[in-house]
Specification:
The protein has about 500 residues and is an alpha/beta fold. About 45% of the residues lie in helices and about 10% in strands. It is globular, with a radius of gyration of 27 Å.
């Protein structure tokens, strides 16, 4: 097509406004979601593919010089760029950007349908039937079709899987008014996937998070391999487990998560394998266990280090044979489950101390993934916090607020950061410097007793154990690549291998 509509992410009004414009163009345009940060690079690399480009609901952000250079190049190539916005340009943009594009300023802002109404007025499109979809879901009458979930699901798929197609499809559905019953099977699957996993995302664009996502992709492609996820509390280990499942060939099968510390040891066997009616006092009916429920899919056992020794032996038996019997049952049941486990404990040390079975550890530790604590990728605090804040208030955090959040190490990791933001929301606190100061004061006792000054766990007294832990940490940081890890540590591969085997 000759035309392209670029619209923003993160707020439904962007998608609805783009749908109004698409309707005005009689559907004759490509549609893509775009962030202001990546706009200059996209226009520079791909903008010349179209004759007309419409920017709807996108601030002119990113590198201003790169944006100006891209627009100059597009003008030389006879590509017409139109910026449709409810925001005023800065003085710098007025000078460097405005002469290079068509500017259509529509009103004063985006929110509460203002952008949708303005686009409709500018392009002579009646927006009465489409306007309600720009209103937040909790303010909608029940009669409004579920386009809101469709747009949210499309944005989720883009964030998690870099698949832009559903977002364009959702906007086309809005523009044409296609009924839910006529949505394609692919879009229905996108929505179902979002309903199951939409609240589990790995947010962050820093080097460590990019490497973690890449490693998850490689691991997920091997649906039989067991995975052991290591990381401190609050780092997102269950999210990693969920991502392994959703990216694997087992994605359309069940995903069950179970915390091994949540049930006393007498009931663990029943929870794992189920029981027959009358097998013990209180067993009034047959109940299926986790290994049966998750058959064909993924079973995630969190806090595996809390599993009692007796239960460890029971778990080992099913891992070795792939078969089990319900409590009180007589027939063996075959199961095909990918087992993913997680812990914040030092399992090798527990093995040495006789608190965890070595044979079970070897069975679980086929592929090992380390989820870094937040203090190791503090550059991602901006994205994690801003996305949460935007979803809550439909506005972004200020640079001062983000800088204040970056001054703390978060021993409780992402969970602590989100709790802190929720506290700010409850107390209507916008001064994050004061918020962090009060938070430090509230948690001073905990940090002094349980954490080091840098926010990490207190190191052991033995020097050799400290070295061993550090070597293992670096090895995991570099995705268990011997060459890269040994180069970073400035030791030989053989020395690194020796330490890793001892861990």
């Amino acid at each position: 097509m000759n035309s392209l509509i670029l619209t923003g992410w993160g707020w439904k009004e962007y998608a609805v406004a783009a749908a109004v414009l698409l309707k005005a163009l009689k559907g004759e345009a490509d549609v893509r979601g775009m962030s202001k940060r990546h706009l200059p690079e996209f226009l520079s690399a791909e903008g010349a593919k179209w004759k007309r480009i419409y920017l709807v609901g996108i601030s002119l952000g990113g590198d201003e010089k790169l944006l100006a250079d891209a627009l100059k190049d597009l003008r030389r190539k006879k590509v017409e760029v139109t910026w449709i916005s409810g925001l005023q340009m800065s003085d710098s943009q007025q000078k460097n950007i405005a002469p290079l594009i068509k500017v259509r300023l529509l009103g004063n802002g985006y929110f509460n349908g203002a952008l949708v109404k303005a686009v409709g007025k500018a392009f002579d499109v009646d927006v009465e039937t489409i306007l309600p979809y720009a209103i937040e879901k909790n303010k909608l009458p029940k009669s409004v079709p579920p386009y809101h979930e469709l747009i949210s699901a499309a944005m989720y798929v883009h964030r998690c899987y870099q698949d832009e197609t559903p977002y364009e499809t959702a906007i086309r559905y809005l523009a044409t008014g296609i009924a839910e019953c006529a949505w394609s099977p692919d879009m229905k699957r996108v929505i179902e996937h979002y309903r199951r996993y939409g609240n589990r995302e790995l947010v962050g664009s820093g080097a460590q998070m990019r490497e973690l996502r890449s490693y998850i992709e490689r691991v997920a492609a091997h649906p039989e391999a067991r995975v052991l996820i290591l990381g401190e509390s609050g780092t997102g280990k269950e999210t990693v487990a969920s991502q392994i499942h959703t990216r694997s060939p087992r994605r359309n099968e069940p995903f069950y998560a179970f915390n091994c510390a949540s049930v006393n040891k007498e009931l663990l066997e029943s929870r794992f394998f189920g029981h027959e009616k009358g097998s013990f006092t209180g067993a009034n009916e047959q109940r299926l266990g986790l290994f049966e429920l998750a058959d064909g899919g993924t079973l995630f056992l969190d806090e595996i280090g809390e599993l009692p020794l007796e239960a460890q032996g029971t778990l080992l038996r099913v891992l070795e044979g792939g078969r089990f019997m319900r409590l009180g049952g007589k027939d063996e049941i075959k199961t095909d489950v990918r087992l993913v486990t997680a812990t914040n404990r030092n399992l090798p040390r527990m093995v040495r101390e006789g608190k965890f079975r070595e044979d079970l550890f070897m069975r679980l530790n086929v592929v090992q993934i380390r989820v870094p604590p937040l203090r190791e990728h503090k550059e991602d605090i901006r994205d994690i916090a801003d996305i949460w804040w935007f979803e809550k208030f439909r506005k972004h955090l200020s640079e001062e607020q983000i800088d204040a959040l970056g001054e703390y190490d978060y021993p409780g990791n992402v969970r602590e950061l989100l709790n802190l933001l929720e506290r700010a929301a409850v107390l209507d606190e916008t001064d994050f410097t004061r918020l962090i100061a009060k938070h430090r004061e509230m948690n001073a006792g905990l940090q002094d007793s349980d954490r080091s000054e840098t926010g990490g766990m207190v190191a052991p007294d033995e020097l050799e154990e400290v070295i061993r832990q550090h070597v293992k940490k670096v090895f995991l940081k570099y995705a268990q690549n011997l060459s890269r890890a040994s180069a970073a540590l400035k030791i030989s591969r053989n020395t690194l291998r020796k330490y890793v085997q001892e861990c």
